[in-house]
Design goal:
This protein is mostly helical and 145 residues long. It is rod-shaped and about 105 Å long.
Length: 145
C-alpha cells in the first residue's frame, strides 16, 4: 500500500454508491421537468395557433346564414347590419347596437318570423332553423362594429 493513499472501506463504497444514485435520480428529475416543460409549451403553441384557424374557417351554417342575411335582410339592414340607405330612410335599427344585441334570442326570432313595423314576416319563406341561424348571425354582427 502506498503512502498518502487512503484505503477505501466498505462504508466509503456505500456512500459513493448512494451519492451516484442520488445524482442519477436528480438527472432523471431534471430530464422529466425539461420534457414536461417542452411538452406543455408545444401544447400551448398548438392551441394558440389552432384557435384562430378554427375561427377563420366559418361553419357551413354560418356561411348559409350569411347568404340568407344577404338575400333577405341586407337590402334594408345593410351587409354589416348598420342599415342601408333604404333602411336608414325607414329608420331600421342598427343590428350591431346594444339596443338590438340585448334583445333575447326568442324575441329576435319572433320579429324575424312575424315582422315588425315596416319589416315583413319571414315565417313563410324561412324555416325555423334558418331563423335561428339568422339570430346567431345577428349576434355576430356586434363584433364587426
Amino acid at each position: 500500500m502506498s503512502v498518502g493513499r487512503k484505503r477505501r472501506t466498505h462504508k466509503d463504497a456505500i456512500e459513493e454508491f448512494k451519492k451516484g444514485k442520488i445524482m442519477l435520480r436528480d438527472k432523471y428529475r431534471h430530464a422529466l421537468v425539461c420534457t414536461s416543460t417542452i411538452l406543455m409549451a408545444l401544447v400551448g403553441a398548438l392551441i394558440f395557433v389552432s384557435v384562430p384557424m378554427v375561427r377563420a374557417n366559418p361553419s357551413p351554417d354560418s356561411v348559409a346564414a350569411s347568404a340568407t342575411f344577404r338575400t333577405k335582410c341586407a337590402m334594408c339592414h345593410g351587409q354589416d347590419g348598420a342599415g342601408s340607405a333604404v333602411g336608414k330612410s325607414m329608420n331600421v335599427p342598427d343590428l350591431r347596437a346594444p339596443m338590438v344585441q340585448n334583445v333575447p334570442d326568442a324575441e329576435l326570432a319572433q320579429v324575424i318570423s312575424n315582422g315588425k313595423g315596416g319589416m315583413p314576416p319571414f315565417k313563410s319563406s324561412l324555416s325555423e332553423d334558418q331563423i335561428r341561424a339568422l339570430v346567431t348571425h345577428i349576434r355576430s354582427l356586434h363584433q364587426k362594429k
